[in-house]
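Model: Ready when you are.
Researcher: Fold this.
Model:
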Amino acid sequence: MGTKTITPRTNNDGQIGSSSKYWDKGFFNTLHVNDLHTASSSTLSANGISVTANAGILFEGSNADEFETVVTAVNPTADRAILLPDASGVVSLSDTTYSAGTLLDLSTTTFNVDLTEAAAATIAAGDNIIFLDGGASGTHSKGSINDVATLFAGTAASTGLSASSGVLSVTDLHPVGVDGSSGDILADGGNGTIVNHGTISIDGSATNGQMIAIDASAVSTGNAIKITDSTYERASGHIELNITDTATSTTNRGGNGIMKVQYIRPNTSPVAAGQSLTSIGTEIRMDDNATNVGTSEIIGLDVHCDFANTSGTTTAVGVLTRVGGSDNNYDIKMINDADDSEFAAIYVYDGGALGISTASDDSTGNIDIIADGNITLTSGNDHHNYTSIKRRKMSVTSSTDHDHDGDVVYFGAADGSVSQGDICYLGKDGSNNATWFRAQANAESTSTSLLAICLGTDPATDGMLLRGMVTLDHNTSDNNFGDPVYLSDTSAGDADMTAPADNNEVVRVIGYKMGNDDEIWFCPDNTWVVVTA
């Protein structure tokens, strides 16, 4: 028959079949139509369908009405291929939103999820994550963060980990090979393994900077470093700085000290009016609250500086203070533990002058200097230098013989007859050596010289009282307070309440009675009277 061609009279003119009358079958190698319609119960089979216009493929759906679904293609810039998976299901669109409870088969479908527009949030205990459930035919499931943490923790006996409310914690490192003692420090063994140390060893090969640097700026309470010890069995102390100085150069030789404490308050942070601030560089507090039976001693600060023999000039300073600002500052301030308003202070001000002062709210800030040896006050050698005592208190001595309080000279030797408590005059022996003899008012030669009371057996060692309070070792009567006391004319070395009256005897007042136990104020008069009878 050959090829037959059916051609419409004009373009877009002509029709095969109608909307109500369909051909049963049609077979074409190539079919070009503007619109192709099939019956609702029919199918269209073709090795390939080429849509050359923008109208696309139109799907009427189950009902022939005014609504259709059109599949069109964006104008391609290259050959493209869209593959449908070998599976049954619903094809998802890029803007499809799935409601709660909708399951997605992740085993056969790949999703490219763009989370750049998702709102940021913090994962917390109780939140869930989506995961591929390998035990449920590849479907997806949700699981809580708490369950994930528990999964990672595993069995504590094997991993040393535990999980609580989604938080992983290390509870025991023994299962992973760390076998240390209580309080050991963990470190990298150098090959990525964890090792334990009872002590810390720090490589000091660095020539500058700090080997340990701690920034405690955020600590408002508590401590940057704290050492706790319930036994205090530390012969070498809790912190030991053992420095051996082998350098011979004076460069960088401890200018800031072996231990340095530096505190700075910048001018931009002044203490506000009405506020009070106390800043302490180093606080040492030691309290012994035990009921001790034996001997207990606590020492807040023990400083020991020592030099070996050397040909150079060496100076050891136990405590060096340098307090600036004004003369109202104290180098050392000692406070009464029961009352902070009561204190004693030592300070250095202009010219290197030393001040010692006390303060109290009830005028009890006394200064007591007690020594079992000598106390020496020495001023400069220049005649302009002096020792000034504004007010000197002398107390009436006790009832004990020879008790005294006053001016004492350590000078000369004692005549063989002199004993403690004797009133003596100063003379000389046959070799013109200064010698103290017992005084007596029966002659001018034994009563008109410098008088003093012997305080022992050796004047150069025990001293001679020139003036002051003293308790005599012989009777001077009672109830005679303030009466003059005379040098005795009858007993060498004694005093008497009755003035001498015989010819050529000397009347010399040596003091005044201060009590009924022979206490007197000893102050020998520089004038005397020789009796003429």
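Researcher: Now this one.
Model:
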Amino acid sequence: MKKKNNDDNIIRTSFIETNDKLIEECYSAENGVCYAIWDGKEVKYATDFIEDGQEFNPIFSEEVVNRAIHLPSKAEEYGTDEELDKEIMDFISKWLDIPDDFKTFALWNIKRSWVYERFHTLNYLRALGDTGMGKSRFLDTLGALHYKSISTSGATTSAPIFRIIKKWKGTVLMDESDFTKTDETQDIIKIINMGYEKGKFVMRCDQNDNNIINFFDPYCPKILATRKTFEDKAVESRCITHIMTGTTNTKIPTNLNDDFFDGALKIRNKLLMWRFRNYWDIDPEVKVDLGTELESRVKQIVNSFVSMFCNDEKQLDKFKVFIKNYQEDLIDERRTSFYGEVVGAIHELLKEGYIKINAQDVIDKGSLVGWDNKPAKPRGLTSVLKALGFHKTKIAKVDGKTKRIIPLNEEHLTNLFKRYGYEVTVVTVICGIPQIENQGKVTERGGLPIYRNNRNSVTQEKQQKIEEIDLTPQNSQEFETNLIEFRKCSQPDCENYETNPDSEGNPFCKDHWTGYAKK
């Protein structure tokens, strides 16, 4: 097939996939850039690749020469998966002090990055900690082994990050990603938030023509290092986080040297061969029973890992333990959040037998405070309750007073309490009780439920009589305070209950109320 000579027609890329070949870019100082071409049986090397008349060349740019991007130099045999895993684990242990369980997860994340195109969703590795706690070493050590990793910490705007992702489609390393609230920061947050799933694009206006909309695909592996958690909860939920606390291990070298870079390159070369051998064998739709009920977000993480070792019982058992602990950590983190405190207060109220509760009840039970460390206001809780899935409050009469009641739904409460780690049997008990007006706290005495409030005990029969009273305002002067309390009318021989108090606070029914004190 005749080779094209017009440079304008040459596509420069680091990876090509055809029906029967995988082509990856390699680089060494001695030989420059080239393609490693895998045909399913062996690896061959070439300076270009031609398919259906289209010529492809490796990318040769400043980041390659300066080794800002970590490329393999060739494909090397790695022996068995167990031998490769041990070599990776030994390398991490030599240069980075992290717990064994997170080290194992880092191993899985490294291998997954080398076949990430086969999956629909990704999570991100994240190191969290103060300055000097080892976040940069975390990025250096793990980043050096991930697929085509490149650091973006030197980027002053989001534009080069968009370009570098589009150019290399490798792993992005973001150091000190504690972004302030600026337009550029929001663009970077979008990269993180949209880049976890295939087919989610970030739209940007062309810098030369605002009528042209450019679509950028931010999907790729990412490793982050931050001093604090993200305010954006969606971004935070994408991260598998290790809290860095520094190290007292004197065997960890203080500085990275040639031994580090040579060792990392050797492992990348072996991982390239592992990618060639496993890329087409990955089944992203494989189903594995992990023996526990997982949240949808956790399931996304599971699906992109288990397919790599679904036939390895030992690895699968380790993964089951890790993912179970991870979900428990997620729930614990939620429970300690403000939203978790709100859910906990509602759960406690239901547990104590209260059914008709309002925002103030929740605030009082949870001792909730606002950003100013002062008691929270019911109005301020409205958006939180809405975000938690509760519908619009309804007006009802409780303990003789009007309250804006939070509507309760059994299915919603069950899911909510599970998500925040509270037992759900209280939901069945509470939601199984008839929703009778004016009920405060539910208890049992004999065979009939008694609805307790702070003033008296009302039987179901008496409660029904109260409910039948017509409390509809009869004229424009009757206002919302007409539901203050259930008291007998002050008119002699009248057995009706009040609709409004008079000007001195005496109770009168709608037939005898005039708005003035009765003499």
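Researcher: Key takeaway?
Model: Residues 313-335 form the longest helix (23 residues).
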